[in-house]
Amino acid sequence: MMQAYCGRTLVFFGDSLMKEMADAHMCLLQKYDNSPDFVAPTKVKKAASLCAKFLNKADGCEVRVCHVRSPASSKTLFLGKLGVFFKASTLLVMNIGVHVHSPSQYARILEYFSLKWKSRARSKHELPQLVWAESQAQHFPNVGGEYSLRAYRRAQREGCKLFNYVAFNETSIHVINWRNRMANKAMQALGVPILPLWELTVSASPWEHVGMHKHACKDPASVLNPSCFGDCTHHCQPGLPDVSCTLLYQFLRKTPVNS
After folding, report:
1. Cα gap 64→71, rounded to integer Å
2. Which value, in Å, is the radius of gyration of the alpha carbons in the chain?
3. Are 97 and 159 in contact (CB under 8 A)?
4. Residue-by-residue pLDDT tens, the chain, 259 positions
C-alpha cells in the first residue's frame, strides 16, 4: 500500500470532516512507517495546517499527510493559502460544503474557485493533482438530515436518525443533495475527479456518529451533560473515515504521481 503513496504529499483542505479523512490516513500510514525518527504531526504556520511525515526505509518511500483548515465562513476558497503545497507531487483533496448553508453562496464559491483554478492553469503555474471529495451526508433528526440549531437540540434528546429512503422520491433526494449536485457539475467542467462519499455516508448507521456515544465527551465529568450529544455530522474512528482511505487508495493505484 505504501507504494501507492510513495513520494506524495496528501493535503486535505476543508472542514472538520476533511480533518477526519486526514487523521484516518495518518493512522493508516503509521502502520507502514518503520522509521525510528517518525515525525509526529507538526503545524505549518504559513498554511495554518497540521502535517505528519511517514517513511518506509525498506523501499525509501516517504509520504506527508496534511490537513489545511478552510475559513469557517467559507466566503471564498483562498488558493493562495495552499501555495506552499502547489507541486505536481501533491494530491489535494478538497471539500468545504458542510460549512455552506446557502445554494446561492455555494454557487459564488464554486464560481470563484473555478475561475482561479483556470487562471493558474493558463499561467502555467505548477498545480497539484486535485480530487474533489463529495459533501458527506448528515443524520440529524429532520428532513434531509442536515444540521440546524433546532435539529442539533432535537438530536440531543433523540439521537441521530437513519436516512429514510422510503420517505423520499428520486427528485427530493436530488434536492437534498444540492451541494454535490452543484459541486460535481463544477468539478466535471474542470476535469477534476470526484471521490464519491455521499452515497457511502447517506446509508450509514446513526451509530457511526460520535453523538450517539458517551465517549464523544472529552471531559468524563460531563458525560451526562446533554450538550455532549447531538453530533450527527462527525464519525467514530475507526469507521467510515477509514473507508475513504480505501477509495482514495484505489484512485492512487491507477494514477501516477506526476499525471
Report:
1. 22
2. 19
3. no
4. 677 788 889 999 988 899 999 999 988 888 776 664 445 555 555 555 788 888 877 778 888 898 888 865 544 555 666 777 888 889 999 998 888 888 998 998 899 889 988 988 888 778 899 999 999 999 998 878 888 889 988 888 888 888 766 566 655 666 788 999 999 999 999 999 999 999 888 888 888 887 777 655 555 554 455 556 678 998 888 888 888 888 888 877 776 544 4
What the block records as the C-alpha cell of 160 is 441521530
Residue 93: name the closest of 15, 210, 32, 202 by CA. 15
Name the burial class of residue 26, with classes exposed (0-12), middle (13-18) and buried (19+) by CB atoms within 10 angstroms of its CB. buried
Contacts of the segment 45-51: beta carbons below 8 A, 24+ positions apart: 46/84, 47/81, 47/82, 47/83, 47/84, 47/85, 48/81, 49/11, 50/22
Q: CB-based contacts of 9: which residues, under 8 Å, 6+ apart?
A: 63, 64, 65, 66, 85, 87, 89, 90, 91
Instruction: Give the separation between CA 97 and CA 14, rounded to whole angstroms.
Output: 8
- Is the separation of the CB atoms in 62 and 54 below 8 Å? yes
Predicted model pTM:
0.85
**42 DSSP 8-state letter:** E
Q: What is the dihedral of CA 189, 175, 16, 250, to 10 degrees?
A: -50
The grid coordinates of residue 69 equal 483548515
